[in-house]
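Q: What residues go here?
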């Protein structure tokens, strides 16, 4: 298969890059120069479409080239792709975590969202994961779907909690351009209810906390010791190397995306090794100012907040005084609290985390 041949070729390149550039460095960006572990994330929901032999081959290709011990290995799957032989093959290869895109347990809601699975398939898939031996499962849910009531959303969360997953992610519906929902929104057939979205956000945080799922990021909740380490590494602005079509990288001072087109991606792999690779898109050279701003934006989404002293040490060339006015404004607005060098958003501030991120970028630019 051309896709798997290309994946192995790019993984070889990644292995060589690690050996040449990352010895003794913490790829998670958590501040320890001696740490030598990393995480793997098969994302996009499509990995589950591979056949069992192909999935086993891909997992072996990754595992055999791993330059450090694997701290966590997540695979995203749609409920309709969860099969016993496939799950066992992944777990045997070293996968430690499955993230399943449930979205809703309401069949009408799933139809409205254009999902291809039914609630019955979700429950069957969850049983398969547990029976196969998966001990770390995340369920993705979506709320604020037009027409969705608080009672319907409550039932979705109740059913998710009843399954006792280790992790739950909840996302407010976004209207992606050129989707059916987007078209309906632009035609005026649907309307967003911003006030309802805000109320559901707060209600979600309270409900899941009461069910034993601690919120550690605006949209993510877990039982103790089950926060997603891969996502934390990303939010801390660590390094990551994306492999495959459309995969994104933040690696060796550069940020880019691989071509989404299979043939263009394969053609780029034929070139001599370079960073970013031939055919890369959305290329950005990473300055300390940009990385620091991103570390602030994503760090403030975390309930733990941002340790300014640690960021000052990590990015010593940044003019941190430029942010003082913004911190004062956010505190005065009630959007941020500050305890010495620790910044964190209040519940009110987390409702506007994206807008606050935009204000941080304005300072940087």
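A:
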């Amino acid at each position: 298969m051309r896709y798997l041949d290309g994946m192995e070729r790019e993984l070889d390149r990644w292995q060589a890059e690690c050996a040449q550039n990352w010895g003794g460095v913490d790829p998670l960006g958590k501040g320890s120069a001696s740490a030598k572990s990393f995480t793997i994330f098969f994302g996009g929901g499509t990995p589950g479409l591979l056949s069992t032999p192909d999935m086993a081959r891909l997992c072996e290709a990754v595992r055999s080239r791993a330059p450090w011990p694997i701290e966590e290995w997540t695979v995203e799957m749609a409920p309709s792709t969860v099969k016993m032989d496939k799950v066992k093959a992944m777990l045997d290869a070293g996968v430690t975590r499955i993230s399943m895109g449930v979205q809703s347990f309401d069949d009408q809601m799933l139809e409205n969202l254009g999902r291809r699975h039914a609630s019955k398939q979700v429950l069957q898939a969850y049983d398969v994961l547990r029976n196969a031996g998966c001990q770390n499962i995340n369920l993705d849910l979506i709320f604020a779907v037009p027409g969705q009531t608080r009672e319907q959303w409550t039932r979705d969360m109740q059913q998710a909690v009843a399954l006792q997953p280790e992790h739950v992610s909840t996302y407010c519906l976004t209207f992606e351009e050129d989707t059916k929902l987007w078209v309906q929104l632009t035609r005026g057939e649907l309307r967003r209810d911003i006030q309802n979205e805000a109320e559901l956000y707060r209600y979600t945080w309270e409900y899941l906390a009461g069910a034993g799922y601690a919120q550690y990021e605006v949209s993510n909740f877990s039982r103790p010791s089950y926060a997603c380490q891969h996502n934390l590494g990303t939010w801390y602005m660590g390094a990551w190397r994306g492999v495959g079509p459309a995969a994104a990288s933040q690696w060796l001072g550069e940020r880019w995306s691989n071509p989404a087109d299979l043939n263009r991606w394969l053609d780029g792999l034929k070139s001599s090794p370079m960073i970013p690779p031939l055919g890369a898109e959305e290329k950005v050279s990473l300055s300390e100012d940009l990385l620091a701003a991103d570390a602030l934006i994503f760090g403030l989404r975390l309930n733990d907040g941002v340790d300014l002293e640690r960021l000052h040490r990590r990015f010593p060339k940044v003019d941190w005084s430029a942010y003082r006015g913004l911190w004062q404004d956010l505190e005065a607005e009630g959007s941020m609290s500050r305890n010495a060098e620790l910044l964190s958003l209040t519940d009110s501030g987390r409702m506007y985390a994206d807008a606050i991120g935009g204000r941080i970028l304005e300072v940087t630019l």
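A: Context that may help when evaluating the design: The chain is about 45% helix and 15% strand. The two ends are 45 Å apart (CA to CA).
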